[in-house]
Amino acid sequence: MSQSHTGVPNDTVPDRTVPEDTVPGETCSLGEVLEQVSGKWNIGIIMAAMAGPIRFTELEREVQGISRRMLTLTLRKLERDGLLIRTVHPTVPPKVEYTLTEIAHELHDTFIGLTAWADRHKASIAAARRAYDAQSQGA
Amino acid sequence: MSQSHTGVPNDTVPDRTVPEDTVPGETCSLGEVLEQVSGKWNIGIIMAAMAGPIRFTELEREVQGISRRMLTLTLRKLERDGLLIRTVHPTVPPKVEYTLTEIAHELHDTFIGLTAWADRHKASIAAARRAYDAQSQGA
DNA sequence: CTGTATCCTAGTAGATACTG
DNA sequence: CAGTATCTACTAGGATACAG
């Protein structure tokens, strides 16, 4: 190690030997998670569908700001990953319903926790940003 | 899944009037969440820093697959948002430590839940993808 | 050791128009 | 109603080289 001449004793550093509840072992898992969670609209759509089957136009209204294109794309992606089921009712006019699968429903609590966290801290995050930007300008 | 979408008139569908535990009220909150959670490396870095202050090179090793550039960029973003603190020790060679803030630590359980979910379902997600792709080809 | 700078690619996303 | 097509723009991300 190269810290012997820095004067910093490093016997107080916590061991990085993965305390079994901190790191998921496989990086693969993380990658899979990100694909569901990252993306601008995934969470919004899943949250909107939590209450039960929902139609295309309802989603378009509920997930405000989403474009028709992105709604379609995200829906297809979610369907492909088995997070929701697309049901076409052969009526006229056509009616399509999107229903979350069981595994998607399991994300409910996590997403609630996530949004709660954001709600608790959005003010301080905004403040931190302003502080950082102000300081960056000065520097 | 628990309820069918097979044409049974569903009088049990809950109203879409935001049951106060399902939708975060403001789309803004969601947007803020996504900025912390989306992005390929945010979760990995935060998880790696959960155990205590961690150095640049340690992160580079622990968050496997990340490039130096993305590590720097993500670190800066996280710092700007007040999720971690960057401490420079004016030694030679330089030593920089990244320490999570309290609000970042609060994400621990949520992220654990997320990775656990991914771990539980990654097999069925992969299967769903194969099925979807196979069917798309046929169609 | 801890970054920055540059170049380049692919994916994400918006706008708009068109269709079964 | 529920999409698709096309065109464009921005950003995320990787590779590589250089620097304090």
Explain what the structure shows.
- The structure is a homodimer of 139-residue chains.
- Chain A is mostly helical and 139 residues long.
- In chain A, a hairpin with a 5-residue loop joins strand 2 (84-89) and strand 3.
- The longest helix of chain A is centred in the C-terminal third of the chain and has 31 residues, at 108-138.
- Chain A has a single domain (30-131), classed as Winged helix-like DNA-binding domain superfamily/Winged helix DNA-binding domain (Arc Repressor Mutant, subunit A).
- The model of chain A is unreliable at 1-27 (pLDDT under 50).
- Chain A has helices spanning 27-37, 42-49, 56-62, 68-80, 102-105, 108-138, and strands spanning 54-55, 84-89, 95-100.
- Chain A has a three-stranded antiparallel β-sheet with strand order 1-3-2.
- The first copy, chain A, binds a DNA duplex (20 and 20 nucleotides) through helix 3 and helix 4.
- Chains A, B: GO terms for molecular function: DNA binding.
- Chains A, B: Keywords: DNA-binding, Transcription, Transcription regulation.
Per CATH, the class of chain A reads: Mainly Alpha
List SSEs of chain A in N-to-C order. Answer: HHEHHEEHH
User: How big is the Rg of chain A?
Assistant: 22 Å
Termini separation of chain A comes to 33 Å
The CATH superfamily of chain A bears the name Winged helix-like DNA-binding domain superfamily/Winged helix DNA-binding domain
CATH topology of chain A: Arc Repressor Mutant, subunit A
Q: How many domains make up the 3D coordinates of chain A? A: 1
Main β-sheet of chain A, in a few words?
3 strands, antiparallel
CATH architecture of chain A: Orthogonal Bundle
Provide the spatial order of strands within the biggest beta sheet of chain A. Answer: 1-3-2
- The helix count of chain A comes to 6
Number of strands of chain A: 3
Write down the overall mean pLDDT of chain A: 81
Helix content of chain A: 40-55%
Shape field of chain A: elongated
The most extensive interface, with participating residues per chain, is: A-B, 75 and 72 residues
Q: How much strand of chain A? A: 5-15%
**Alpha-beta content class of chain A:** mainly alpha
Poorly predicted residue ranges of chain A? 1-27
Quaternary state reads homodimer
Protein name (chains A, B): HxlR family transcriptional regulator
Region (Disordered) (chains A, B): 1-26
GO molecular function (chains A, B): DNA binding
Keywords (chains A, B): DNA-binding, Transcription, Transcription regulation
